[in-house]
Design a protein that fits this description.
alpha+beta, 3-stranded antiparallel β-sheet
């Protein structure tokens, strides 16, 4: 299993803490049933942290006319809104919520030229709430596709997530399904596409990053 580079330090710290808890309990209580339980819990916590930073292999969907899922998770919103941060027009917003059990690597839903990238400080309300798109800490990225269509998407921190990592640099050309960043421990991504695009997902659907086609651009 491949581990994402953003997890190296956290995994090392989790290993040290888990080992210290297990060894400390053994030293204080010797090899009792209680010590076994504590050691098992410490091992499970460490395994969870390692699994959180996994990077699974995916069968990439590459098509300039398609918008693919930028992350794993559950679709929590599909609605028309006015995107007034950068696009300044009415769009279809598709929001995907990532639980702590989902893969948290974030990918470009379309390929093209990065026009805009900006980080915003904010709150940490539950990421599945509609207002999280405007209130929470977030990073917005806009990409212009080869066909000239502008697509904006946001990495949004959640109640547990406290750090957004974004690799987007305005002016660079990026490939569809290449990594745009990582959000640590529970979060959400919003994608804003032109009204009239053919949306292929509904609220409640589970999507897989780089494999699920969320929409076809008009």
């Amino acid at each position: 299993m491949k581990i994402h580079k953003e997890g190296y330090n956290i995994i090392a710290i989790a290993f040290i803490i888990s080992a210290a808890v297990a060894m400390g309990s053994w030293w204080l209580l010797e090899w009792s049933l209680f010590t076994k339980v504590i050691s098992a819990v410490a091992l499970l916590v460490f395994a969870f942290v390692v699994r959180f930073f996994r990077v699974p292999k995916r069968t990439l969907v590459i098509d300039k006319d398609l918008v693919v899922a930028p992350c794993d998770g559950k679709v929590v919103q599909v609605r028309e809104v006015v995107e007034d941060e950068y696009l300044g027009t009415r769009c279809v917003q598709i929001s995907v919520f990532m639980s702590v059990f989902n893969v948290h690597v974030n990918y470009y839903p379309v390929g093209g030229k990065i026009l805009y990238s900006k980080h915003h400080q904010g709150a940490y309300i539950v990421a599945s709430y509609p207002k999280a798109s405007e209130k929470n800490e977030r990073t917005s990225i806009a990409v212009e596709t080869a066909n000239g269509t502008k697509v904006l998407f946001r990495q949004i921190a959640g109640y547990i997530a406290r750090r957004i990592v974004c690799y987007a640099v305005p002016g660079e050309q990026v490939a569809q399904c290449s990594q745009v960043g990582f959000i640590k421990f529970g979060s959400r991504m919003d994608v804003f596409i032109p009204v009239g695009s053919e949306v292929n997902v509904n609220v409640g659907d589970r999507v897989v990053a780089c494999e699920t086609v969320m929409a076809k651009l008009k």
